[in-house]
Amino acid sequence: MSDTYVGSIDQGTTGTRFMVFDHSGQVVANAYEQHEQIYPEPGWVEHDPVEIWENTKSVVTEGLDAAGLDATQLEALGITNQRETTVVWDAASGKPVHNALVWQDRRTTDRVEELEANGDIEEIREKTGLEADAYFSATKTEWILDNAQPLKLQTSRTQDLRDRAREGELLMGTIDAWLIYNLTGNHVTDVSNASRTMLYNIRELEWDDDLLAEFDVPAEMLPEVRPSSDEDLYGHTDPDGFLGAEVPVAGALGDQQAALFGQTCFDEGDAKNTYGTGSFYLMNTGNEAVESDHGLLTTIGFQRSGEPVQYALEGSIFVTGAAIEWLEDVDLINNAAQTAELARSAESTDGVYMVPAFTGLGAPHWDGRARGTIVGMTRGTEKKHIVRATLESIAYQTRDIAEAMEADSGVETTSLRVDGGAVKNNFLCQLQSDIIQTNIVRPEVDETTALGSAYAAGLAVGYWDDVDELRSNWQVDRQFEPDMDESKADKMYGRWDDAVERSLDWAQED
């Protein structure tokens, strides 16, 4: 099997990547393509699902060609995806009825506030482990069914979208389900993605009738929920399709759960933080769904065939890497790599704090109306201070989560495994270690999201024998230890709460 591999489709918020891994977990093929970000109104974020599917085919083909590989050398395909982003499509034509509503989209904030006013928050949290928020798929699906233009039937009559959904003519899914459907023709999702919809009972492990009724989402449009690593397979690619081969599609994980899997956090207490568009800090809590008293989410980590579900506590930070992109957008930097150089040129921020609440604040604040804020500026404030404050905001938000995680789990953070594009920035990694006052461990293969879904698919088809084999693949690239005095870190962090307070409940469009 030395000339066979496992492929991973990593469909993220800003683009789609295809990677191929060998037995040692090393990358042998890699291709990437961005897709358009659509902003119809302030706070609204959409993607074109057709563009995402076309880009997926493009990067898979490009990645294999560039590495001189044939699709027949792939023993399995795994999928990992931006979570919560929601697509509704026509079962017969395969065409979406509306653009995908992205996880960052805030258009249903009013609906969430209505749930809060009606006293429904606790029931939602108890069943789903989630805070009621526009972040999740339930209100997005409801909005699409309420607002997308009804499709014309062959009779030229228009019909309510919900009626069509009840008749099985419309399907709903997160991006993993959309890709699996296009790859195999089957309507399937995995437990980790289902747990992010705010429609799935994570304790009963089934779609919840009461929540479906609350959001008026017909059960007939929902995908079948399967293990994240599925020996029964989700299906096969079409040998007459774009790959020209019948490849098993055998694993799927929401991107943050995939990173947990790729970082080999298989045991209770293992934790990782992924720095992407947002940042997502997950701790494996084993077979117990630990309830949070500190604004964290209780979510499904992963499930292997024939094994119990493993749960996780999660701190969701909506904007970290996207804050660096914003610095580029407003021409404060030319590229992300420049942030470290500029930040180092300033000994401190001179009292400037930046709260990157561009799409509200996630854990532990959960304020959909918070907005981006820069405070503490003087006439002497320079570009370097704002850039450094932006990097510090990533570290502060992560400390918010680390402290909540310790309080909920009772497990002290002594070491945190990190991954994602931003961890290539050594300055940020050191800053993170200083602010949290813990060791930051960066692995050799930092594309652990793609690696995790490859591991899930490969385990399902026997490409890897067991998780111990995967643990032996994990290698440290660099470890960062605190270099800042604890009292100084505490003092810097102490004013962060003041800055956050000024960002809260800012958006009052109504």
From TrEMBL:
- Show the PANTHER family listed in the entry: GLYCEROL KINASE, SUGAR KINASE
Q: Which NCBIfam families match?
A: glycerol_kin, PRK00047.1
- Detail which positions bind ATP: 13-14, 277, 321, 421
Q: Where does glycerol bind?
A: 83-84, 135, 255-256
A molecular function (GO) held by this record is: ATP binding
Q: What is its EC number?
A: 2.7.1.30
Q: Where is the Carbohydrate kinase FGGY N-terminal domain?
A: 5-262
Q: What's its job?
A: Key enzyme in the regulation of glycerol uptake and metabolism. Catalyzes the phosphorylation of glycerol to yield sn-glycerol 3-phosphate.
- Domain Carbohydrate kinase FGGY C-terminal, first and last residues per copy: 272-460
Q: In which pathway does it act?
A: Polyol metabolism; glycerol degradation via glycerol kinase pathway; sn-glycerol 3-phosphate from glycerol: step 1/1
Origin superkingdom: Archaea
Q: What is this protein called?
A: Glycerol kinase
Q: Does the keyword Ubl conjugation apply?
A: no
Q: Which UniProt keywords apply?
A: ATP-binding, Glycerol metabolism, Kinase, Nucleotide-binding, Transferase
Instruction: Give the residues the record marks as binding sn-glycerol 3-phosphate.
Output: 13, 83-84, 135, 255
Q: Which residue stretches, if any, does this entry annotate as coiled coil?
A: none
Which protein family is it in? Belongs to the FGGY kinase family.
InterPro entries, per the entry: ATPase_NBD, Carb_kinase_FGGY, Carb_kinase_FGGY_CS, FGGY_C, FGGY_N, Glycerol_kin
What does the entry give for GO biological process?
glycerol catabolic process; glycerol-3-phosphate metabolic process
| This protein's GO CC annotations | cytosol
